[in-house]
Amino acid sequence: MRKAIVHSRRTGGGPVNGAEPGSAAAAFAPALALPKKRSLAIAGHRTSITLEDAFWRELKAAAEEQGRTVAALVAEIDAARGPAGLSAAIRVYLLGTSKARAVTSPHQE
After folding, report:
1. For residues 57 and 51, is the Cβ–Cβ distance under 8 A?
2. pTM of the predicted protein model
3. Label partner for 25 (CA 20 to 30 A): which of 34, 43, 44, 105?
4. pLDDT greater at residue 24 or residue 12
């Protein structure tokens, strides 16, 4: 069984920090863990959302893959989130889409 190598979009696809491929350090880029606050219009009102930069990047990529804006995707997540906080709901949504891509990826061994 081969170890999965996690690649960072930020570094152009190589392992992060020059760490051992497959290690936790190889998957972690400290700059991507810094929270950033952004404002979006959702359902006609402005709201601020704080997410780590890694999640903002994934959210933008997910919206682009679906051919819509980040605000439209966040509005859909917001409508379905129930009692969960919006930032948490976005993270859980992105985790689910990431897992779904991993299951359907042709590169799995």
Report:
1. no
2. 0.71
3. 105
4. 24
